[in-house]
Amino acid sequence: MKKRSYEENVYQWLKRKGLAAKYDHAGIYCIKIDDTIVYIGKSMNMLKRVAQHYAAIKGQKERKYRILAEA
């Protein structure tokens, strides 16, 4: 049995929460901190991208994610 990554587990969890119908498609998004836009992005699958951001914030591997985690 193939072990799923943390990112894939987050994606499956978001789907179980019922968010697939609303976010499982392409789109443009922004991340805000205190009503200030700090990141703008686009994705072919918004739900998977949210899962990627969540997993990266938890792991804090990149500088931008360390900043977001601290905020």
Provide a compact summary of the structure.
The protein has 71 residues and is α+β, with helices and mostly antiparallel strands. It has helices spanning 6-16, 20-23, 46-59, 63-70, and strands spanning 27-33, 36-43.
Can you lay out the helices and strands and say which pair or pack?
Layout lengths: L5 H11 L3 H4 L3 E7 L2 E8 L2 H14 L3 H8 L1
Antiparallel strand pairs: 1-2
Oligomer: single chain
Helix/strand order: HHEEHH
Order of strands across the main sheet: 1-2
Number of strands: 2
| Apparent shape | globular
The share of residues in helices is: 40-55%
Descriptive report:
The chain is α+β, with helices and mostly antiparallel strands and 71 residues long. The chain has a domain of 46 residues. 52% of the residues lie in helices and 21% in strands. The protein contains 4 helices and 2 strands. It has a two-stranded antiparallel sheet. Helix 1 crosses helix 3. The longest helix has 14 residues. The radius of gyration is 13 Å and the shape is globular.
Question: Keywords for this structure?
Answer:
71 residues, alpha+beta, two-stranded antiparallel sheet, 21% strand, globular
